[in-house]
Amino acid sequence: MFEYIKGNLEFIGEEYIVVDNYDIGYKIYTSNESIADLKTKLGAVIVYTQIIVRDDDMSIFGFSTREELKMFRLLTTVNGIGSKVALGILSSIPMGNLVGIIVAEDTHSLTKAQGVGKKTAQRIILELKDKVDLKIAVMEPSLISQIHNENDDAEEAISALVALGYTKGEAKKAVDYVKDACGNIEDVIKKALKFLSK
């Protein structure tokens, strides 16, 4: 309906802003990243928008960049992710980092986002990893190191389980199921064996 709204930033609330356009104040739900970005702009601001209409409600969601709006729209295509959860994710994790997390299939970091459990994180990764824009992916050095360590431990645990006679598919399923709750590789193997013995 609207590609963007341009006007003066009149008010900043918690997870929303009010933009005045010709004496009409538009309440626009937005992310912490967009709020921080818009605060730095003098005069009129441009907010790229998406209107969500439900039976009992009409809300405007908007962002300071087209890329963040695109990410919001992508998140809402995931089964079980509504506009409020998508906004919570974008407020919890800066967009570039979020893309990096999805590409790296890092469920652990994704569960730190507001409203996202392990199964939801896995679903987001599964449905979006081939759709996100790799050009905007940002990988913090600590995140890269953490992901490499977790992946190395997971591979080592899978190899150990295969050596014990399990198929690679069984071993991977068990390790993926238990690894987020484990502190080290020995824990991963023990809990994976317990999972496989059920």
Give the topology, please:
Blueprint: E1 4-12, E2 16-21, E3 24-29, H1 32-39, E4 44-54, E5 57-63, H2 66-76, H3 83-92, H4 95-103, H5 107-110, H6 118-128, H7 141-163, H8 168-178, H9 185-196
Parallel strand pairs: 3-5
Antiparallel strand pairs: 1-2, 1-4, 2-3, 4-5
Helix pairs in contact: 2-3, 7-8, 7-9, 8-9
Taking all Cα atoms into account, the compactness measure Rg is: 21 Å
Helical/strand content category = alpha+beta
- Total tally of structural domains: 3
The share of residues in extended strands comes to 15-25%
Number of strands: 5
Query: Major sheet, described briefly?
Result: 5 strands, mixed, barrel
Uncertain runs with pLDDT below 50, 5 residues or more?
none
Q: What average pLDDT do the residues reach?
A: 85
State the oligomer: single chain
CATH-scheme architecture of the largest domain:
Orthogonal Bundle
Helix content: 40-55%
* The CATH homologous superfamily of the largest domain: 5' to 3' exonuclease, C-terminal subdomain
Element string (H = helix, E = strand): EEEHEEHHHHHHHH
Distance between the termini: 53 Å
Predict the CATH topology of the largest domain. DNA polymerase, domain 1
Number of helices: 9
Physical arrangement of strands within the biggest beta sheet: 1-2-3-5-4
Can you tell me the overall shape?
elongated
InterPro entries: DNA_helicase_Holl-junc_RuvA_I, Hlx-hairpin-Hlx_DNA-bd_motif, NA-bd_OB-fold, RuvA, RuvA_2-like, RuvA_C, RuvA_C_sf
Pfam families: HHH_5, RuvA_C, RuvA_N
GO molecular function: ATP binding; four-way junction DNA binding; four-way junction helicase activity
Protein name: Holliday junction branch migration complex subunit RuvA
